[in-house]
Design a protein that fits this description.
Chain lengths: 210, 109
């Protein structure tokens, strides 16, 4: 009989490779300090939630995350745990890397216990998407090259997260500050989107043509 | 490009959506009693309307929810967006019917 069980080894999590790890040097050289900067935030803990926010299970999960957003674009949460609205009964919890159970965190376990046998899902999606952070006064101009949403601050306020397309890639776009955005592309799109953003940023490295 | 108004997310580009075909095609009550022709008609036969057409759409890149839409297949005008399961809204009164059809060029009676 074949030995199917994987040998028990202690995994060194700091040897993990993030989806856009190959672009790290390119992000450093492609960033224009003070104008537009791009970096990858690696291995954030992400949890997919599917629950009716008005149900009992929804209320229990509400107390773990510190809120569930009510409408498109809304972001709820408390402390460094944020809950992004993806659909009427679908949410994405974003928390720091340390919240993951492989690093001793208890967020996912707490959410599972809160859901208990209520209707819904709690799924660890940490490896599903990676996180790009785009900051600087020109960040909006870079995104506008490939996003059809109105990104003007009078429409898109800081603290809004929308599921949309950027450079034809489906991403969740989260405006975290007046001049900072987080983009969540799926891992397999990270390389393409990273290069697309670098290309869109390139013109801001040159002196402005009057 | 169509600008489609998703009931959850508001106006978004057509590329964020997927088309789901004709709306209001009810599943047969007793599928086992249908003969092959009736079953084939349920599966494959769809209206090919010129004018207002009720169809299903999925906001696949956004909220991932289905909804119904009444769209004019000639002008692409979106006449109504309404939830799944709701009956087709009566837009015949709202849309002005053409009073007389234009005769083809050169046609005389």
């Amino acid at each position: 009989m074949a030995e199917t069980a994987a040998p028990e080894t202690k995994k060194n999590l700091f040897l993990r490779t993030s989806p856009a790890a190959l672009l790290r040097a390119a992000f450093d050289t492609g960033s224009v300090p003070g104008t537009v900067e791009l970096s990858e935030i690696t291995f954030l803990t992400m949890v997919g939630l599917r629950v009716d926010r008005n149900s009992d299970a929804g209320q229990r999960i509400w107390s773990v995350t510190g809120g569930l957003p009510a409408a498109c674009g809304a972001v709820a949460g408390s402390g460094d745990t944020s809950v992004l609205w993806l659909g009427p009964e679908e949410f994405l919890v974003v928390a720091p890397m340390e919240a993951h159970e492989s690093l001793g965190g208890d967020l996912i376990q707490a959410l599972r216990e809160a859901l208990a046998d209520g209707e819904g899902q709690v799924v660890d999606l940490s490896a599903n998407r990676t996180t790009f952070e785009l900051t600087g006064p020109r960040a909006r101009a870079v995104l506008e090259k490939g996003c059809s949403l109105d990104l003007h601050p009078r429409v898109l306020k800081a603290g809004t997260a929308l599921s949309t397309e950027i450079g034809n890639i489906p991403v969740v776009l989260w405006k975290t500050g007046d001049e900072s955005y987080r983009l969540f592309p799926r891992a397999s799109f990270a390389d393409f989107l990273g290069r697309w953003l670098l290309d869109a940023m390139r013109e801001y490295a040159s002196p402005e043509v009057p | 490009m169509l600008l489609i108004s998703c009931p959850n997310c508001g106006s978004r580009d057509e590329t964020e959506f997927h088309y789901g075909g004709q709306a209001h095609v009810a599943y047969p009550e007793n599928p086992n009693e249908l003969n092959d022709r009736e079953w084939a008609e349920f599966l494959f036969y769809r209206d090919n309307t010129k004018g207002a057409f009720a169809e299903r759409w999925l906001h696949s890149t956004g909220c991932r929810q289905w909804f119904n839409m009444l769209r004019d297949t000639v002008t692409y005008e979106i006449q109504a967006v309404y939830p799944m399961g709701a009956p087709r809204p009566d837009k015949a009164a709202a849309a002005p019917a053409p009073e007389s059809t234009t005769a083809p060029e050169g046609a005389t009676k």
